[in-house]
Specification:
Layout: E1 43-47, E2 51-56, E3 63-70, E4 77-81, E5 89-91, E6 97-98, E7 105-108, E8 111-114, H1 117-125, E9 131-135, H2 148-157, E10 159-165, E11 168-169, E12 175-178, E13 184-189, E14 196-201, E15 212-217, H3 220-227, E16 233-235, H4 236-244, E17 257-259, H5 275-288, E18 294-295, E19 297-302, H6 306-319
Parallel strand pairs: 4-9, 11-18, 14-19, 16-17
Antiparallel strand pairs: 1-10, 2-3, 3-9, 4-5, 6-7, 7-8, 12-13, 13-19, 14-15
The protein binds zinc ion (ZN).
Length: 330
């Protein structure tokens, strides 16, 4: 574990931002840290100092400025709409998920925050337990469609430990959820130190998005090395439908990975041959973190999207004793 001298005197968990991945090619982003340490033995964390980033949202294209602020233990992830009267807060918890197509939207206190899943994944992947997310628009900036912009900001800020232990949940039995289209997600007990994610992507033989699967034991290092740079993607066939719904009209093939009907990528190139399934795991990590605590278990998912991910996050929240009634439908 590499550490730099820290003028504040507090332990710096990932003091050296080492993001190097900025263009197509094999990602080299890393997070110097402590993968071998047991999550159960760790304290809660927050940022060492405020971090900022800005840019247009993925679906609506509205420019947003975000400040990630250090927060006290047991705050969790709390969004705050600074552009609205009274600066209403929206907890980053599954109880506040509003049903929405193709993204995760949170709503509380008369305010909404859209497309939170990639930022939630960055915070969860780097094991940031507590953070206030100030945002001056309805949708989180998209960056390049991956987690890199958020991870860069978090690692540049630095992460510090707080005094309370991390909230950790280990399931004792398997829990599963399934949809009518063959999608499924299952959480099974695991006796290691890191949660494990295994995802099988299968849009059928007619889809230009190739069938692929990927597994990862999640630590900050594996998250940065294997998952964080994986971008969101869309089959060419779906673009017209999405734009008719008012989504992504500002995007070009440079801003999002578009799979053409012949299987080629429009105006772009993949960072990994299996980048889509890695992004599905990224989404899964972000959505499941809405359960409000860390868990050590194995997630096995097939074709699971945001809606089913939310059902599993709700299940974890309920069986861990932290949950309240969830408003959205399965
Ligand atoms: Zn996504």
């Amino acid at each position: 574990m590499r550490q730099q001298a820290d003028p504040s005197g507090s332990e710096s968990l990932y003091p050296e931002p080492t993001l190097k991945f900025r263009s197509a090619g094999q990602p080299t982003a890393t997070a110097g840290s402590r993968s071998s340490a047991s999550q159960a033995a760790l304290s809660q964390t927050t940022l060492k100092k405020p971090a900022e980033f800005s840019g247009p949202g993925l679906f609506h294209g509205v420019d947003a400025r975000v400040r990630l602020l250090p927060a006290a233990e047991n705050t969790g992830i709390m969004f705050r709409r600074t552009d609205l009267v009274g600066k209403p807060e929206v907890p980053g918890r599954v109880e506040y998920v509003r049903s929405a197509a193709r993204r995760t939207v949170l709503a509380a206190n008369g305010a909404e925050v859209e497309t939170v899943e990639h930022l939630m994944a960055a915070l969860a992947g780097l094991q940031v337990d507590n953070c206030v997310v100030e945002i001056n628009a309805p949708e989180v900036p998209s960056g390049d469609g991956s987690c890199l912009m958020f991870c860069d900001a978090i690692l540049n800020s630095g992460i510090q430990q707080l005094s309370s232990p991390r909230k950790l949940f280990r399931p004792r039995e398997a829990h599963a959820a399934a949809g009518s289209g063959g999608e499924r997600i299952e959480l099974t007990p695991l006796y290691g130190d890191a949660p494990s994610f295994c995802y099988q992507l299968d849009y059928g033989t007619e889809s230009p998005v190739p069938m692929c699967s990927f597994s990862v034991d999640l630590t900050p290092e594996t998250f940065m090395r294997e998952i964080a740079a994986a971008r969101t993607f869309v089959p060419e066939d779906e673009i017209e439908t999405l734009q008719r719904m008012g989504f992504g009209r500002h995007l070009t093939g440079r801003d999002i990975v578009v799979f053409c009907n012949d299987g080629t990528i429009s105006d772009n190139s993949l960072r990994w041959a299996d980048e889509p399934v890695r992004h599905k795991i990224l989404d899964c990590i972000g959505d499941l973190s809405l359960c409000g605590l860390s868990f050590v278990g194995q997630i096995i998912a097939s074709k699971s999207g945001h809606r089913l991910n939310h059902v599993m996050a709700s299940t974890v929240s309920m069986i861990s004793g932290r949950g309240i009634a969830v408003r959205h439908a399965a």
